[in-house]
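Closing statement on the NAP sub-project.
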Amino acid sequence: MRVVIFGASGYLGSQFMKMYPDSHAPSIDIGEKDHVVSALEEFQPDIVINAVGRTGRPNVDWCEDHKEETMWSNVAGPLILLNECGKRGLYWVHMGSGCIYNGDNGGKGYNEEDEPNFMESFYSKSKAWADQMLKEFPEQVLVLRLRMPFDGTAEERNLITKIAHYDKVLDVQNSVTCIPEFLEATKQLIDKKKTGLYNIVNSGTISPFQIMEMYKEIVDPAKEFAAITNDELLKIAKAPRSNCVLNTDKLKKEGIELRPVEEAVKDALEEIAKNSK
Ligand SMILES: NC(=O)c1ccc[n+]([C@@H]2O[C@H](COP(=O)([O-])OP(=O)(O)OC[C@H]3O[C@@H](n4cnc5c(N)ncnc54)[C@H](OP(=O)(O)O)[C@@H]3O)[C@@H](O)[C@H]2O)c1
């Protein structure tokens, strides 16, 4: 099976490279139609994985001041892929995000049919625009919506690595995605050539503050940090952040269920503790 991965140098792209070690990873700009056409013609893939994104460094606040770059990578690129993969009848996979929602939808969590309700940061807007456009082509593309991804590595974009550097940590319940389980779920969906939107998060919810309490217990008893509310975070961040719970009933109907979040976080923290010794 010939696989092409765009955005292969990123946090998620590099994980896909491990999942499909023989894949091609052309270093192109997906916002440039000619680049995309050349890569598709050269490698003739069976599957295209779009792990591209302007996600912002050090965080999504960057996107507020770099709207064009963000649009180009997060919206124009996926549209070019939709068109070029569509013309060739190619199966492709796009990384969506749960950050287009806010709240827990009355305890039910947001499902794949719910309209986005969080457009308060430019990054979230760009992800919502692409998500909603791709949703109109449910036969053509598999869109994976993950949320606050984490694993047991020291990767700078791992949620646990990020919040371990903060003095103040948000205490709001969220869905989160354990990366190794996300990859396993994705592989199953790809093997079945599933298309359309899928929320892929662990079962249950947790707050970043609760993760840090577990971090203190398992990784570093000397760690000091304080809890902050979303209102307090708004005073120090440039753009508001989404806090949301996603519903995974659609994924469960495929026979796929990620582990309870506490279990997955505990395992990741134990791996971090082991590697830091
Ligand atoms: N990590 C998260 O918290 C999270 C959560 C939900 C969804 N997602 C989505 O998952 C995708 C990947 O995220 P990530 O965390 O892996 O991001 P990342 O670490 O920032 O990686 C993004 C990758 O995209 C590449 N890229 C950016 N613009 C490009 C363009 N126009 N053409 C080609 N390549 C381009 C980057 O290359 P350079 O390094 O050369 O710029 C990098 O390889 C994004 O769509 C993101 O929205 C991420």
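The chain has one domain: 3-276. With this model delivered, the sub-project is considered complete and its resources will be redirected to Aim 3.
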